[in-house]
Amino acid sequence: MTTVIPFGPQHPVLPEPVSLKLEIDNDVVVGVLPSLGYVHRGLEKFIDTKDYNQTMYICERICGICSGIHGITYSRAVEKLFDVEVPERAQYLRVINSELCRIHSHLLWLGLFADGFGFESLFYECWKYREDVLDLLERFTGNRVIHSMSKVGGASRDLTKEQIDQILKTLDDLEPKVKNIEKVFVNNYTVKKRLVGLGVMSKQLAYEAGTAGPTLRGSGNAIDVRNTADWDIYRDLGFKPAVAKEGDCYGRTKVRIDEIYESIKLVRNAISKLPNGEIETRVKGFPTGEAVMRAEQPRGEVVYYVKGKGTKNLERLKVRTPTFANIPSLLLMLPGVKLADVPIVVLTIDPCISCTER
Amino acid sequence: MLDNVIQNVTDIKSMPEVLKTVEGLKNDGYRYVTMICLKANEGHELIYIFEKDDKLKHLRYFVKPGEKPKSVSGIYLCALLIENEYQDLFGLTFEGLAIDYKGHLYLTPNSPKTPLA
To answer: Do residue A19 and residue A133 come from a single domain?
Structure first.
């Protein structure tokens, strides 16, 4: 006989409200029904009252963790409509902003994850290191989470020589700290016991389920939007996607740790190649036509669709966020998992519900 | 300025053809990305987006007023959330949804009805 147990919307491991109705048979999950709607704000409707420049600030507020990449992706989608070339320096500044966002997001997740399996001191360590990156972002954008670094046509802020030195110094200090926490996540006996073989998705299943980001790459799929033609700049910076073959909670954790190192490398390379020059191309007129733009957020691929009709407002903005793509994978990963392990599996998709519901 | 910068769009005329094409794309190894819904000529326009080898492919289908489009969640399970979202926000009804939230994925009984319609 099965029992239905609600998981969430308020749960110690969930930073945001989402509910899963778990059908349990003898302590094992046999069915899952996700339930959303706790933080739906109607932001895609809200833009009816904003012009296309103001909409950038709405997009940044979809999420407090990947706000910078939301702003950048929206800007790039609208720039496609205008067919404008953004100055090279602005493109590099966007990469630096994006990768610093990814580092702090992954450190946030690692902390939450450690907390999820009861490793409090590891949680403190991860969040302590994350603060260094947030301090850096605050110094160079003025804010911890909403950076407004990007604008349609380029970047809204430049980096000074002192700020660049601060970034490099912080990353030099951060790298050995990440190596220390990596040892625990990857090698600790107890942690491995909790993660290895749990919430397994095969390479094929993860691909067919439409998953994104570390959830997709943790199952052996080397798919990362930074590796596509839309983001040539990443290829110039020597980007390589982080992939793990395990397909379980352990694999998804390793991908995120490897991505921190990759992001540190990308920021260093972007700084070393940072060209001089303008940071903005003036954009005039109103957007017409439709465009799709993708980017790789910390949680995976985000898709922006914009449609302009020659007025100051966009006719339609649609955002498909990575958690939206990853939630259906819980229907595949959770059956067969013990009730006590459900929080661990749910956390490994790094659920961001503000993004999902917008 | 470009009129339309979406590349690789296929216009599809009938719902059975949509299902057949989507099934063909799955067999060809395409990944389901998302679907866009727009208001168009009293009806709605659906743009299905797929990806393979880092290239996007788009299918465009016009939903006539009153028409109930078929769900593709039987082919790609992950389509169920976006189809339910459009039931909430645009008032569309997708037939054959793998999980049907009946217009209450996001919205409660007291919420504004079909806010994007």
So the answer is: no
User: Domain for residue A196, yes or no?
Assistant: yes
Contact B36 A228 (CB under 8 A): no
Label residues A236-254 b or e (16+ Cβ within 10 Å = b).
ebebebbbbebbbbbbbbb
Contact A304, A288 (CB under 8 A): no
- Is there a domain that residue A150 lies in? no
Q: Summarize pLDDT for A65-83 with one digit per residue, the tens.
A: 888 899 999 999 999 999 8
pLDDT tens by residue, A121-178: 999 999 999 999 999 999 888 888 888 888 899 999 899 999 999 999 999 999 999 9
Domain check: are A12 and A126 in the same one?
Answer: no
For residues A128-151, one letter each, b for 16 or more C-beta atoms within 10 angstroms of the residue's C-beta and e for the rest, the string is: ebbebbbebbeebbeeebbbbbbb
pLDDT exceeds 50 at position A102: yes
Q: Which residues from A are below 8 Å from B when comparing CB atoms?
A: 33, 36-37, 40, 42, 44-45, 80-83, 207-211, 223, 227-229, 285, 288-292, 294, 301, 303, 305, 307, 315-316, 318, 320, 324-325, 327-329, 331-332, 357
Q: How high is the ipTM of this complex?
A: 0.91
Residue A333 structural domain: 1-38+325-342
What structural domains and CATH numbers belong to chain B? 9-90 (3.30.460.80)
Contact A334, A341 (CB under 8 A): no
